Amino acid sequence: MMGCQPTTPAAEEEVPPEETRAAEETPVEEETPPAEPEPTAPPILESLLMPEIASAESQIIYPQEQRATLGGQDMLFWPDGNIGFIPMDGQYRFFAANGTVIGRTVGTFDDPGATVEDSRQVIQGLSRDFDYAAGGPIYRDPETGMLLMFYHAEDHFGGNGVVFHAFIGLAASHDDGETFQDLGLILTTNAEPDVNARCCADMGGATFTIRDGIFYLYFRDRMQSGEDIQLAVATAPVDEVVEAALNGATSEWFKYFSGGQEPGLGGRSSPLEVGNPPTGWFSVSYNTALDRFIMAIARHGFLTDPSELVLIASEDGYNWSPRTVLRECDCQLTYPTIISPDGNPFETGDTFYVYYVTTDPTAQYRWHATPLSRMTVTLTGEMVESPHEWEFEADAEGWAALNQIPSMEVSDGALVVDPTGNDPYMQSPALGLNTEAYTTIEVRMRSEANGNGQFFFTSTDARGISEANSVRFPVRSGEWNIYTVEMADAPGWSGYLGILRFDPIDQQARVEIDYIRLLP
After folding, report:
1. Residues 6 or more apart from 4 whose CB is under 8 A from it?
2. Following DSSP, what letter does each residue of 112-168 receive, concatenated?
3. Contact 122, 171 (CB under 8 A)
4. pLDDT value of residue 15
5. CA–CA gap between residue 29 and residue 457 (Å, rounded)
């Protein structure tokens, strides 16, 4: 548990045995006076909707040994980021980082590394001596044929790349990508590079798409306060970017911040996902089946929390849906790239590919047990509300154990938590629910010990987990009890709900959870 503070008490009730509870249990709730509406904040009428997945199937394109030695060359670190491509004589030319430089290959979507043209391509004329500069996503100007590569650059602190500060730049090619000339940086973090800062100010791979003549480029930012903005966007008109590039320069880019704009070089950013949840690297496309932007995000897990590959969607490129999980694994999963099977570089349909790499967690070194995989994703074409009731009939239903919970198993229709300490907690799937429509949490559970439970949350106005954005309730040992936890008066319970974190007990005691329900 986090530090104590006064909170809204929860009503609780003893519940009769299982065979009679359906007819007899009625939770007792304390009456809470309705909150005064904010006159300047219009009510949110609907929850955020998430893309519904028809199927998602993965296959290994290259196992470790084949990937690392494609074409008999050193491709150990390929693809170390997002993959770009252009059509080339009935096939495609692919560009992706191979460590600190670019690996350029020719092949098909089934065999993208069939021919390795250059495993050590460098961007020429870099404006400064970066320790790493490679890409990446590619745009071809239809009028001149010029290629623009959006590249990821790094300054390494300590000389080994373990701690770094990232930048995003632009390079141009007039020979179909055989050479690239640097144009300069287009995005830098709000925070200045700091050798004493924690690892790492990573900006991602500069994944982008185009709508209505505008580049939408997605990245991570670090603020001067030290906060990491996990998903941010910068925009620039395509014609201005191309015109400047033809003159060997860059045009001005603008970051989205609090409904307005700030400079791409050093400006501030606002998070695009509710609650600013953790990301790793990501890839964007515009999806014609949904008529929305879509994005695949790879998120690294920690300890008992598995890595995830998730999909989100947005109507306008700024406000994004809750996450739909495509894959979970006890591995390091990263560097997703969305590609349409028809080769359209900016749009996808109801079926598309997501390329990514995984690393076995038992491997002594990263990239020594790292296959390249491809997931084929098919959408139903529908957007649906995230679940708000979890009955735990067969599994954890998307809840993840985060701390002092070695495993969560379902037994007799209840989720069993056997903590290893007195601060166990678990996290819900992404929600995106309207906090005006859902104001109460009801949980039925039994515990081996008396103590306190606690619900934390993130929301539009509560970016991270904090004691202020939580509600405690007393837990009684023995029989099954229903706890009705009023959330509406908690600071930050506004806008859209990001996730819930549930601390079922502040003791090292077994807890069985029959259900958790978000209610009006």
Report:
1. none
2. TTSEEEEEEE-EET-SS--SEEE---EEE-TTT--EEEEEEEEEEESSSSSEEEEEE
3. no
4. 36
5. 21
Residues composing the chain? 520
Question: Domain map of the chain by residue range?
Answer: 11-47+387-519
- The stretch 485-500 carries a mean pLDDT of 94
Task: Return phi, psi of residue 144, to 5°.
Answer: -105, -15
Share in percent of the chain as helix, strand, coil (round to 5): 5, 50, 50
Give residue-wise pLDDT tens across range 372-419: 999 999 999 999 999 999 999 999 999 989 999 998 899 999 999 999
Q: Is the dihedral of CA 335, 341, 347, 353 positive or negative?
A: negative
Q: Could you give the CA distance from residue 153 to residue 287 in angstroms, rounded to a whole number? A: 29
- CATH fold label, 11-47+387-519: Jelly Rolls (2.60.120)
Strand order from edge to edge, sheet including 372-385: 49-62, 372-385, 351-359, 332-339
Q: Are 431 and 419 in contact (CB under 8 A)?
A: no
- Tokens at 263, concatenated: 């400079």
Q: What is the dihedral of CA 217, 219, 221, 227, to 10 degrees?
A: 130
Q: According to the 3-state scheme, what is the secondary structure of 366-429? A: CCCCCCEEEEEEEEEEEEEECCCEECCCCCCCCCEEEECCCCEEEECCEEEECCCCCCCEEECC
386: left (phi over 0), alpha (psi -120 to 50) or beta: beta
Q: Which of 477, 497, 474, 476 is nearest to 487 (CA)?
A: 497
- In this structure, how many other beta carbons lie within 10 angstroms of the beta carbon of residue 22? 8
Name the amino acid, one letter, at 140: R
At 20 the pLDDT is 37
Beta-carbon count within 10 A of 38 CB? 9
Give the model confidence (pLDDT) of 314-353 as tens digits: 999 999 999 999 999 988 899 999 999 999 999 999 999 9
Strand (E) positions, 2-100? 11-14, 49-62, 84-88, 91-98
For residue 59, what are the β-bridge partners? 374
Lowest mean per-residue pLDDT among 45-54, 74-83, 224-233 = 45-54
Q: Which residue has the tokens 């480029």?
A: 217
Calculate ∠ Cα 366-372-373, nearest 5°. 130
CB-based contacts of 235, cutoff 8 Å, min separation 6? 214, 215, 216, 217, 253, 254, 256
Three-state SS letters, 419-456:
CCCCCCEEECCCCCEECCCCCEEEEEEEECCCEEEEEE
Q: For residue 132, what are its two tokens?
A: 């790493």
Partner residues linked to 107 by β-bridges: 92
Confidence label for 304 from pLDDT (cuts 50, 70 and 90): low
Instruction: Name the residue type at position 93.
Output: R
Q: How many angstroms separate the CA atoms of 463 and 275, rounded?
A: 4
